From TrEMBL:
TM segment ranges: 6-26, 99-121, 133-149, 156-178, 190-218, 248-272, 287-306, 313-335
Membrane topology term: Multi-pass membrane protein
Annotated protein name in UniProt: C-type cytochrome biogenesis protein CcsB
Pfam families referenced in this protein's UniProt entry, alphabetically: Cytochrom_C_asm (PF01578)
Subcellular location: Membrane
Domain of life: Bacteria
Gene: ccsB
Residue intervals of the Cytochrome c assembly protein domain: 127-339
Coiled-coil annotated spans: none
Alphabetical UniProt keywords: Cytochrome c-type biogenesis, Membrane, Transmembrane, Transmembrane helix
Length: 344
C-alpha cells in the first residue's frame, strides 16, 4: 500500500476504535450498575478491619486480582497475598464485564492498527504533532491496562480507563487532527523516539494511577459511611478494599516515575542539545515536565518518609495527572515555545 492508502486506513480505523471504546464503556457501565453484594450482614464487621488486617472479604493481600483470589504479583500496600473485589457480579453484570473487556481488546487492536498505519504513511514514528501524540499516548493507556488485566485481573478499572481513552481519541479526531506529513528538522533524531515513547508509556501509567486514586477516594468514603451504618452501593461493592486500591495506584506510579525521569529529564535534554544546541532552556514544556516530575517525586517521597498513604497520597496522584495533562494540552495551546509545533 502507498502512503495515501495507509493514511486513509489510519483515518478510518482510529474513529472506529473510538466507537468500540465507547461500546466497551457502555458495557462496563452496565457491569457496575448490575453489581450486587454477597453476605451483606458481614459488611460492617469487614469494614471496621480495613486498614488493620488483610484477612477480610475486602482485602486479602497484595496482589491485584479482582474477586478471583489470584495471588500473583505484589501490588497491594499491606504486604499480603491477593486483592479481591468485595462484591460479586450477577449473571448479567458478569456478562457485561466480559463483553466490555473483549470490546476493549478489539478497540485496542483497531487503535494499534491506526497508530501503526499512521506511522507507515508518514514514514516515521507517529508522534510528530498533538494528534499523533494523543492517539499514541492513549494507546499506551490501553497497553498498561490490558497488561494489568492479563496478570492481575483489574477489570474494575475498565470503566474509568475506557472513558478516558474514548474521550482522548474523540478529542483527537474532532479537534486535533493533522494530515500525515514529514517532521520538522528539529524532530529528526532517534533520541526523539526514546524521549516520546518513554513519555507516552509513563503517561499511560500516570493515567491508570489517577483512575485508581479516584476509585480509592470513592471506596474509602463508602467504607467510612458503611461503618456508620449507611449501606454501601452495589457499585462500591464492585471494588476491592480501599487499602488494596491504594496499593495499585502506588505500584503503578512507582513504575512510571523512573520511566518519566529517564525519558523526559534525561533523553529530552539530550535531544534538545541535538536540536537546539542546549540541554535546558526553561522552555514552557520543559518547565511543566519538571513540575510533573516534582509532583510525582513528592508523592513517592511522602509515602516513603512521612507515611502519606490513603487520601493525601491519592490527592497528590490526581494533581500530578492534571499537571501532566496541562503539560500535554494546555502548554501547547496556551503558551508559545519551542515545543509548540508538537505534542511532546
Amino acid at each position: 500500500m502507498n502512503a495515501e492508502t495507509l493514511a486513509n486506513v489510519s483515518n478510518l480505523v482510529i474513529p472506529t476504535a473510538t466507537v468500540v471504546y465507547a461500546l466497551a464503556l457502555v458495557s462496563h457501565t452496565i457491569e457496575w450498575a448490575g453489581s450486587r453484594t454477597v453476605q451483606p450482614a458481614a459488611e460492617t464487621k469487614d469494614l471496621v478491619s480495613v486498614g488493620t488486617t488483610a484477612s477480610s472479604g475486602y482485602v486479602s493481600g497484595a496482589g491485584i486480582g479482582a474477586g478471583s483470589g489470584d495471588s500473583r504479583g505484589s501490588v497491594g500496600s499491606s504486604g499480603s497475598s491477593a486483592v479481591k473485589a468485595s462484591g460479586e457480579l450477577g449473571p448479567k453484570a458478569a456478562a457485561a464485564s466480559r463483553i466490555g473487556l473483549l470490546l476493549t481488546f478489539l478497540a485496542f487492536l483497531l487503535h494499534f492498527t491506526g497508530v501503526l498505519t499512521r506511522g507507515l504513511a508518514a514514514e516515521r514514528a507517529p508522534w510528530g504533532n498533538m494528534y499523533e501524540f494523543a492517539i499514541t499516548s492513549s494507546l499506551a493507556v490501553a497497553i498498561v491496562y490490558l497488561a494489568l488485566v492479563r496478570r492481575y485481573r483489574l477489570q474494575w478499572l475498565g470503566l474509568g480507563v475506557t472513558l478516558i481513552i474514548g474521550s482522548v481519541l474523540g478529542l483527537a479526531v474532532l479537534a486535533l487532527y493533522t494530515p500525515a506529513g514529514p517532521l520538522v528538522p528539529a524532530l529528526h533524531s532517534y533520541w526523539l523516539v526514546i524521549h516520546v515513547s518513554a513519555a507516552a508509556m509513563s503517561g499511560g501509567a500516570f493515567t491508570i494511577g489517577a483512575v485508581a486514586s479516584v476509585l480509592y477516594l470513592l471506596k474509602a468514603r463508602a467504607e467510612r459511611k458503611a461503618v456508620d451504618g449507611v449501606q454501601m452501593s452495589g457499585a462500591m461493592r464492585r471494588l476491592p478494599g480501599s487499602d488494596a486500591i491504594d496499593g495499585v495506584a502506588y505500584k503503578v506510579l512507582a513504575f512510571s516515575f523512573p520511566l518519566w525521569t529517564f525519558g523526559v529529564l534525561v533523553a529530552g535534554p539530550i535531544w534538545a542539545e541535538y536540536a537546539w544546541g542546549r540541554y535546558w532552556g526553561w522552555d514552557p514544556k520543559e518547565v511543566w515536565s519538571l513540575v510533573t516530575w516534582v509532583v510525582y517525586a513528592a508523592y513517592l517521597h511522602a509515602r516513603a518518609t512521612a507515611g502519606w498513604r490513603g487520601r493525601r497520597a491519592a490527592i497528590i496522584a490526581i494533581v500530578g495527572w492534571f499537571v501532566f495533562i496541562f503539560n500535554f494540552v494546555g502548554v501547547n495551546l496556551l503558551v508559545s515555545g519551542l515545543h509548540s509545533y508538537a505534542g511532546i
